[in-house]
Specification:
With about 400 residues, the protein is an alpha/beta fold. It is built from 13 helices and 12 strands. The strands form 3 sheets. It has a 6-stranded mixed beta sheet, sandwiched between helices. Strands 9-10-12-11 form a 4-stranded antiparallel beta sheet. A two-stranded antiparallel sheet has the order 7-8. α8 packs across α9. The radius of gyration is 22 Å and the shape is globular. It binds pyridoxal-5'-phosphate. Pyridoxal-5'-phosphate binds next to loops.
Length: about 400
């Protein structure tokens, strides 16, 4: 959010246009947090496809988008790695195109920021992805992920103090105290910061290196094992500790069904919808603790894949899809949403819980038009957070 706000403010200062709408360039694989930032701060989006094999952004696509946008481009976002597929965008190549055009690059290292540097220390040959790369102006790292700190504090790093000035808010034209906020928070929560500091000190650089070694070892064990599971494949090249599993071939194992058959065996893996020519996948976030259980996990995965292989691929309910075509998401009110959710098998007035078999719901979410499914998801949560259900 703050990276997007910073880019917008720097853009306004540069073009001397106080109220215009700039455009952010990002691959479809960028975290939804950037869409959220764009909506909050009125930034337009130019969403780029990714290479369907590597699932990384093509630098030439970034170049073409920037050439087309001209002065309107305010930011390019890349991920190291991306959440959905765990693969690394080509940071240096993208920055080499954006920098001469005067457009800042943000590196989303929310996952990789606390993993890749330790992998480099362990001897992995990794490309520079951080503020050492000319043209990278901001970089985010989540402490609540691989730094094992509690949620509530995070890092946004800038290449230089000049650019960082656009992140700050200062105001003194009111009768209270002059205000300077260096982040989105005004009064800061010192608790999470102190907790993150304490955890980082307690684990220490050597400790993190050991944790990354274990997490990466488990990741590699899973990647090699999947190569021998009929009907499943790993998407792209997992750069850190995230893995996406897809069906291998048209008759391969459906990741949505696999998530259910894994759940039946006591393991949670995360279903991710197919988008455009990107397949539906099952997401794994591998942590250091996974290593001790990796054989058990792989036994379950092989058995769950056997279970899933003989089950039909999950498809969206035809009646619901037909009904969805009649609906204008902009005109949806809460009672209609509620009726739709009940029809979809998610009765929002009941006790909120996910069904044991969610593949059909995942397929429905995947197939519904974006506006409608976003409205239905929000409607479900609105119903949950309602007194006297
Ligand atoms: C977790 C994550 C984010 C931010 O998500 P939060 O819900 O704000 O924690 C952004 N990018 C990536 C790659 C992430 O994994």
């Amino acid at each position: 959010m703050l990276a997007v706000k910073t880019a917008r403010q720097a853009w306004r200062a540069k073009v001397g246009e106080p109220t215009g709408r700039p455009t952010m360039v990002l691959p479809i694989t960028a975290h939804s947090a950037f869409i959220k930032g764009a909506r909050y701060f009125d930034v337009d989006l130019r969403v780029l496809p990714v290479d369907p094999i590597t699932c990384t952004v093509r630098p030439e696509d970034v170049g073409a988008a920037l050439a087309d946008l001209g002065d309107r481009a305010c930011l390019v976002v890349v991920s190291t790695p991306s959440y959905a597929h765990g693969v690394m965008d080509p940071v240096a190549e993208v920055a080499a195109i954006a920098a001469p055009m005067g457009v800042p690059v943000h590196v989303d290292a929310c996952i990789g920021g606390w993993v890749l540097p330790f992998m480099a220390q362990l001897g992995y040959d990794l490309p520079d992805f951080d503020l050492r790369v000319p043209g990278v102006r901001s970089l985010s790292v989540d402490l609540h992920k691989y730094a094992y700190a509690p949620k509530g504090s995070s890092l946004l790093l800038f290449s230089d103090a000049d650019y960082r000035m656009s992140a700050f808010f200062s105001y003194s034209d009111w009768p209270g105290y002059p205000v300077v906020n260096t982040t989105m928070q005004s009064t800061k929560s010192a608790g999470p910061m102190a907790a993150a500091w304490a955890v980082a000190r307690r684990i220490g650089a050597d400790g993190y290196r050991d944790l990354v070694r274990s997490a990466r070892q488990a990741t590699e064990a899973i990647v090699s094992a999947v190569a021998h599971i009929d009907g499943l494949r790993v998407v792209g090249e997992p750069a850190a500790t995230l893995i996406a599993l897809a069906a291998d071939g048209p008759n391969g194992v459906d990741p949505f069904v696999l998530a259910d058959t894994m759940k039946a065996r006591g393991w949670f893996i995360q279903a991710q919808p197919g988008v455009g020519d990107l397949p539906r996948t099952a997401h794994l976030t591998v942590q250091a603790t996974t290593l001790a259980n990796v054989d058990e996990f792989l036994d379950a995965l092989r058995a769950a894949a056997d279970d899933a292989r003989v089950l039909p691929r999950a498809v969206a309910d035809e009646q619901l899809m037909a009904a969805a075509e009649q609906i204008d998401p902009a005109a949806l009110d809460l009672p209609t949403l509620s009726a739709l959710l009940t029809f979809a098998g998610l009765d929002p007035s009941g006790t909120p819980s996910l069904p044991d078999e969610a593949a059909g719901i995942q397929a429905l979410i995947e197939a519904l038009p974006t506006g409608l499914r976003d409205a239905m998801l929000a409607g479900y949560f609105s119903a949950i957070f309602q007194p006297n259900r």
